Amino acid sequence: MYHTLLALKMKPDYLKALLRRAQCYEATEKLEEALEDYKKVHEMDHSNDTAGEAIMRLPKQIEEQREKLKEEMLGKLKDLGNMFLKPFGLSTDNFQMQKDPNTGSYSVNFKS
Predict the structure, then answer these.
(1) How many CB atoms lie within 10 A of CB 31?
(2) Residue 100: CB partners within 8 Å, gap ≥ 6?
(3) What pLDDT, on the 0 to 100 scale, is given for residue 71?
(4) Dist CA 108 CA 49 (whole Å)
(5) How far apart are CA 105 and CA 89, in angstroms?
(6) Could you tell me if 106 and 98 are in contact, meaning their C-beta atoms sit under 8 angstroms apart?
(7) What share of the chain is helix, strand, coil (3-state, %, to 5)?
(8) Do the Cβ atoms of 24 and 4 come closer than 8 Å?
(9) Which of 37, 40, 72, 110 could form a disulfide with 22 if both were Cys (CB 3.0 to 4.6 A apart)?
(10) What pLDDT, on a 0 to 100 scale, did the predictor assign at position 112?
(11) C-alpha span between 14 and 16 (Å, rounded)
């Protein structure tokens, strides 16, 4: 990756280096950065099949990655909430979270 970055520093429109950086980003799960580079490659060379396929494939993977991170974050928040609620004989299971389909935000209500 170092040589690729160095090559792009010297020549930002170096197609082969851009493609390699995109592949490195994808391999290290930096999918948004990879997609950005693949788009640049595709703009420069519309016949590049690797870039074209990645542009079609990566948006779904990026969304899946975001959902996974969101679920992990909610799990950690739930654990933190349980830590604070335990002295009161409560847990996060005593609360109901409802997602607003319009905004994607959550509201929390006490279950009786």
Answers:
(1) 20
(2) 106, 107
(3) 92
(4) 47
(5) 27
(6) yes
(7) 70, 10, 20
(8) yes
(9) 37
(10) 67
(11) 6
Query: Which pair of structure tokens corresponds to residue 53?
Result: 């396929």
Token representation of residue 107: 């509201």
pLDDT attached to residue 100: 86
Q: Is 21 exposed, middle or buried (0-12, 13-18, 19+ CB in 10 A)?
A: buried
Q: Which residue's structure tokens are 């604070």?
A: 84
Give me the torsion for CA of 46, 47, 52, 53, rounded to 10°: 180
Residue with tokens 């299971």: 93
